[in-house]
Specification:
The complex is a heterodimer. Chain A contains 17 helices and 24 strands. By secondary structure, chain A is of the alpha/beta class. Chain A folds into three domains: about 375 residues, TIM Barrel; about 35 residues, no CATH class; about 45 residues, no CATH class. Chain A is globular, with a radius of gyration of 22 Å. The mean pLDDT of chain A is about 95. By secondary structure, chain B is of the alpha/beta class. Chain B contains 14 helices and 19 strands. Chain B has an eight-stranded mixed beta sheet with strand order 5-4-17-16-15-6-7-14, covered by helices on one side. A five-stranded parallel beta sheet of chain B has the order 11-10-9-12-13, covered by helices on one side. Chain B is globular and about 70 Å long. The two termini of chain B are about 20 Å apart. The chains are: A alpha/beta, B alpha/beta. At the A-B interface, helix 1, strand 7, strand 8, helix 3 and helix 10 of A face helix 3, helix 4, strand 8, helix 5 and helix 12 of B.
Chain lengths: ~550, ~450
């Protein structure tokens, strides 16, 4: 029994209805507990937080930190990790590593914690890559992790969608989650990646048919959204939609939103899906956040994260192999691609977002428009789709922009003139409050993920706490927390890491009918290159597993 | 110190399904084993190389102490303390091998290397760097082997001979299996072999082209030009490649006509200069990338025995680079070609080397290097090491995971209790004897 008292800080805990109130937070054995009745009660350790801001630890709803794609990106980009700023020297008790756009595993954990983030999602793991992803998680300290399992191009899923058997499809989803040690269902360009692997005509609308499987993206999306809802998964289907990055894609994005009517859905990196113009008129690309945000504002079944772009060098990585090829041809840079049997693959291309480039500047503005136009901060989460739009290390800069219109205007003034009239950003005067920032960065993503012990400081919450020194320079304030507490342990103190415990891995136990499991495994044996017994993650392969209950 | 107690999951007599074989780069994971008193009686589905690997020497029957210093058997605690002392006080230590170790062992070894500031090289760094450098320069368009199984209608073996080196490759992955898109199996696939001589795989091929060994790079570039539709004159093709121009045009046509092609690139000549080896790997990568403008095509390797891909992956995860990583500055640096292990040893600048697995034992060691060898019983080549720690065999007595050449990780299923500590055990014990600041405790 060890107790920690965080004394007298300005607590911002929106999930608990605390908008900013001076009070204590008490922690016992890694959990937040109710305040002691005896005002003279003493804790084993007290942190004097008077004058500081106290928030739950940050939660990243959509990031890429594990699995074959992330490691392939590290191998592909030695040029990013050779200068003195991109190395992480070893200190006693900690590991050395490298940074770049894709930091090494230990450094990823150190840097997340350094920002006050204590939970992160890897949003794109093919089942066949789950074993490696769990090994990566085991060496990513300080954050709790969870993975979303790719299913939108799974052969088993596509077959069951075609056969129109929702019960069996639900079992297949439960089986893929069980086999992977996964937490939720991810859909990437449903059917479109399979079509690309086949070398077929590009799938561009929700009602195009996938060759040989005879199913449409709409059927796949609805099948998986329904399965996730009916299994009672804590997180709804997590969607990377169609036509990512292409001019004119906003219409398919809106169609996808409408298709989800009556189902829950989370739309990832929505910035990349909000473009006007058309394939015939790529120069006509402009912002179409308006109609899309209006739709989200009036449909509470939907949530989004943004995928904000920042200017500079980064690495694009996606399970959408077709997008990888498109970007490689567009940029002429090196291209790493890996088709993964049964399900998706990955495309990795270095990319430089240039503030003199009209399209890149527009992407920057579109991301900010999203934050400013979605009225309910509980249904939007802060993300850069790390590392796609930029590193998670950009979050403090993003927060500063959201809280300060002048700062946005200053940057906007440096961007190409041609942006004027193509984005409404400069007309949006909204400035986020501290409470809204706390929602956007912890309370909302935790709620969207269905993580009931995260994103708040009520009794029973995991004792993940970030303590900031208030600062008019918001970027500095959010880049350098005064203290970070993970599961009740102080891990960052005045900018220094003090310990690096390994976090937990959240997963669901959705329950699989053994008979159906063996039938699905037999199908896998036919098609896959590995034995079904080796497909399934085994006990001991998941780092500190923590199962979350499912059921409606 | 005693050896690790028997684990409940490693019965001495049992039938084990879905065991993974580390004998060649196939990493077949469908082997059924019948084990009695720790001996493998039957290895169903395994090829002859695999059967020999599973039967192997039984550790307990090979004479040898668990630990020795300068060839003299000692208490393992003394040997571990000596190894820790050597590493902690080393000026310029190396960590080598690891190419047949589990991913978990590799992770532990890199943790040790980080603590003492060692240079780490996985397996034969000279052989792997061309492949890695080419990938870092131009990328690579690739796939898992199951994609080849279910989709590939054209399969090219370019200076690779799986029928000899990877006996079940054709059966399991690349030629014979029926797939969703290849319902007829072998009958629906076109097998193409390009090599310097008629190999065993060539004898099974539908089409064969004999390559002029000295002009392989020129041949790859000419082929790429043809695939891109460059107007090459026949006399030009003939003079640069030494081949019949119509044969090379025919090959370009066959590649472009694939629905989903798989190109298995062999390692080529070990003796070729690194720059040229890198250039040929790069040329093949660009050829395959260009083919993707016309159809789908992927580039793969057959893979090496053991766990090279896994070890490189773990090193990249922890240090950011897949091989040849220098941790001596207190952070990872990798400047390939500047100083490989072989060059460091030859220069006499290495004072201590930790060698895990059998690789590296044959290097040109001198008395300037104190070697710590963690290897299976009976591995004795090279001069007597300063410290010898006998380990059980990964995949037979040691569990964990390994990673196939296409990035798919597979679990190992140990079949009997280890007679010696595992490689990972030894490394963790050495690490525990060195304080976080890199000194012996």
């Amino acid at each position: 029994m060890s107790t920690l008292r965080i004394m007298g800080g300005l607590v911002v805990d929106p999930a608990g209805g605390i908008k900013g109130e001076v009070r204590d937070v008490w922690i016992r054995d890694g959990k937040v507990v109710t305040l002691p009745e005896d005002p003279a009660a003493r804790a084993d350790r007290t942190i004097d937080a008077r004058g500081f801001v106290v928030m739950p630890g940050g939660v990243d709803v959509h990031s890429h930190i594990a699995g074959s794609k992330v490691n392939a990106a590290r191998m592909l980009r030695p040029e990013e990790r050779r200068d003195p700023e991109s190395v992480w020297p070893r200190r006693d008790g900690f590991r050395s590593g490298t940074v770049g756009s894709v930091p090494t595993s230990f450094v990823t954990g150190y840097q997340y914690a350094g920002l006050g983030y204590t939970t992160a999602v890897d949003a794109a793991i093919p089942p066949l890559s789950a074993r490696q992803a769990h090994a990566d998680f085991a060496e990513t300290p300080l954050v709790d992790k969870l993975m979303l399992v790719l299913m939108g191009n799974s052969h088993a899923v596509l077959d069951l969608v075609r056969e129109g058997d929702p019960d069996r499809l639900r079992q297949a989803v439960a089986w893929l989650l069980e086999a992977s040690g996964g937490y939720g269902v991810k859909v990437v360009n449903p059917g479109g990646v399979e079509q690309w692997k086949q070398g077929g005509m590009r799938i561009a609308s929700w009602d195009d048919k996938v060759d040989r499987f005879e199913v449409t993206p709409r059927q796949i999306l609805l099948g998986l959204a329904g399965a996730a809802d009916e299994l009672g998964l804590p997180h709804p289907v997590h969607v990377h939609g169609m036509n990512l990055g292409l001019p004119g894609n906003w219409e398919t994005t809106l169609d996808g939103m409408k298709a989800l009517e009556g189902r829950r859905g989370h739309l990832a990196h929505i910035q990349f899906h909000s473009y006007g113009g058309s394939a015939d008129d790529p120069a006509g690309i402009d912002s179409r956040v308006g109609p899309l945000a209006d739709y989200v504002n009036t449909h509470s079944n939907l949530s989004v994260d943004v995928g904000q772009v920042f200017f500079g060098e980064t690495t694009s990585m996606t399970a959408d192999g077709a997008v990888g090829q498109y970007l490689a041809n567009l940029t002429g840079r090196k291209w790493l691609s890996l088709d993964v049997e049964q399900e998706d693959g990955c495309g990795i291309v270095p990319i430089t977002y240039d503030d003199r480039n009209y399209v890149h500047a527009l992407q920057w503005a579109i991301g900010l428009e999203w934050f400013l136009r979605v009225e309910d901060p509980w249904r939007i989460a802060l993300s850069t789709d790390h590392p796609n739009g930029g590193s998670f290390l950009s979050y403090p800069r993003l927060i500063a922009l959201l809280m300060d219109k002048n700062l946005r205007d200053e940057t906007f003034a440096t961007l190409p003139e041609s942006l004027k009239g193509r984005t409404a950003l400069s007309e949006l005067s909204r400035e986020y409050t501290l409470e809204e920032i706390a929602i956007l960065t912890r309370a909302a993503p935790a709620r969207i993920l269905g993580l009931t012990s995260k994103g708040h400081l009520g009794p029973g919450a995991d004792a993940d706490v970030t303590i900031y020194a208030p600062d008019d320079d918001r970027r500095r304030m959010f880049a350098m927390p005064r203290y970070v507490i993970k599961a009740g342990v102080v891990v960052v103190d005045d900018g220094d890491l003090t310990s690096a415990p390994i976090g937990e891995t959240f997963l669901v136990e959705a329950g699989v009918d053994p008979r159906i499991r063996s039938e699905l495994e037999a199908g896998l044996a036919e098609e896959s290159s590995i034995h079904p017994a080796n497909f399934r993650i085994q006990e001991g392969e998941v780092s500190r597993p923590r199962a979350v209950a499912v059921g409606r | 110190m005693s050896v690790r107690p028997p684990a409940a999951e490693t019965p001495e007599s049992a039938t084990i399904e879905a065991a993974t074989c580390l004998a060649c780069g196939c990493l077949c994971d469908d082997i059924g084993l019948t084990v009695e008193s720790g001996r493998v009686l039957d290895a169903r589905s395994a090829c002859p190389i695999g059967v020999a690997w599973f039967r192997g020497p039984i550790a307990g029957e090979v004479a040898g102490p668990p630990a020795a210093i300068e060839g003299t058997p000692v208490d393992p605690r003394v040997a571990v303390a000596r190894a820790a002392e050597l590493l902690a006080n080393a000026r310029s230590p190396l960590v080598l091998g690891l190419d047949r170790s589990t991913n978990q062992t590799v992770a532990a070894a890199i943790g040790l290397a980080d603590r003492v500031g060692a240079y780490v090289e996985i397996g034969d760094g000279m052989a792997s760097m061309p492949r890695i450098l080419a990938m870092q320069r131009v990328g690579r368009v690739s796939a898992t082997l199951g994609e080849v199984k279910s989709r590939a209608d054209v399969v090219v073996f370019w200076r690779s001979d799986p029928a000899t080196t990877h006996p079940r490759h054709l059966e399991r992955y690349s030629a014979e299996p029926r797939g969703r898109f290849i319902p007829g199996g072998r009958a629906d696939r076109r097998l193409i072999v390009v090599d310097t001589h008629r190999t065993a795989t060539a004898a099974k091929a539908d089409w064969y082209l004999e390559l002029d060994e000295g002009r392989e790079l020129e041949t790859l570039w000419s082929l790429r030009a043809l695939v891109r539709g460059v107007d090459l004159r026949d006399d030009r093709i003939g003079s640069t490649t030494g081949l019949d121009p119509s044969a090379l045009r025919d090959l370009a046509g066959q590649l472009a006509a694939a629905r989903y092609g798989a190109f298995f690139l062999g390692e080529g000549e070990r003796a070729s200069p690194p720059a040229r080896a890198t250039a040929r790997s790069e040329a093949a990568s660009l050829l395959v990338r260009d083919l993707n403008s016309r159809t789908r095509f992927v580039l793969l390797s057959l893979g090496s025995p053991g766990n090279v891909a896994g070890a490189e992956g773990v090193l990249a995860r922890q240090a950011g680079f897949p091989s040849c990583v220098d941790l001596s500055a207190g952070y990872p640096r990798s400047l390939p070609g500047v100083a490989t292990a072989a060059e460091r040893i030859a220069a006499g600048s290495v004072d201590v080397a930790l060698i895990v697995g059998s690789q590296g034992l044959g290097q040109g060691w001198t008395s300037k290097t104190s070697r710590i060898v963690i290897a299976g019983p009976g591995v004795t080549d090279g001069p007597t090491p300063a410290v010898r720690l006998t380990a059980s065999r990964p995949g037979i007595e040691e569990g964990g995971s390994v990673t196939r050449v296409d990035g798919v990780s597979l679990p190992l299923r140990p079949i009997r209790r280890p007679a010696f500590p595992t490689e990972r055990d030894w490394i963790e014990r050495i690490l525990a004897a060195i304080t976080p600041s890199g000194r012996t405790s």
